[in-house]
Design brief:
Layout (H helix, E strand, L loop, with lengths): L5 H8 L2 H4 L10 H9 L5 E6 L5 E9 L8 E7 L8 H16 L4 E7 L3 H9 L3 E12 L2 E11 H4 L9
Parallel strand pairs: 3-4
Antiparallel strand pairs: 1-2, 2-3, 4-6, 5-6
This protein binds coenzyme A.
Coenzyme A binds next to strand 3, helix 4 and helix 5.
Amino acid sequence: MEKEDLPQFSEWFNTPEVFGDYNPLHQSSKVETEKMLESPLELRPFIIEKKDGTKIGFIAHFHVLHVAGRQLEIGYTLIPSERGKRYCTEAIQIMLDFLFLSMETTRIQATTDTRNLASQKVLEKTGFKKEGTLRKYIFVRGELRDAYLYSILREEWKEPRILTRR
Ligand SMILES: CC(C)(COP(=O)(O)OP(=O)(O)OC[C@H]1O[C@@H](n2cnc3c(N)ncnc32)[C@H](O)[C@@H]1OP(=O)(O)O)[C@@H](O)C(=O)NCCC(=O)NCCS
């Protein structure tokens, strides 16, 4: 994500439909969004772009606990009109290649509301394994919801699928 993407990112961040039915509602000013990106524990977002340059969502990685632990988590979202076209599956594959090729992490995790079947499908298609249920983990639309914890280890990733080592 470049600085010029901030207004678009900030708009998405404040639009409930962009995060769908299974994510907490977000509200963040442009200044707050910019600050969030500066913190080492916070989101490192990448814009998901189609070949023609249309920006259709984002995928982010962030540290779980402390940066020194090298535990990474990813999160992703697409604008509603671009869902169901397998773009997210491809975006996750690229993100896994990027993180395992460029960082010393051995594990990448993701969490998702137990009702979010599309998200579970993309995680399973990209090699993540379900580890278990995080009870009453996310606050969505007025209630605490259970979430599944997924992870993929470096040895399960094995080799890049889309990016190359060079
Ligand atoms: C979750 C999300 C990112 C998936 O992206 P996507 O590009 O639509 O996903 P893909 O098209 O790559 O794959 C979705 C898969 O789930 C399946 N799927 C979609 N909705 C489903 C449902 N309700 N039940 C079962 N399977 C479903 C699709 O058929 C597809 O599987 P297939 O490739 O075998 O046909 C997208 O739906 C989204 O942005 N949702 C809102 C935000 C969100 O929930 N983010 C994740 C937070 S954890």
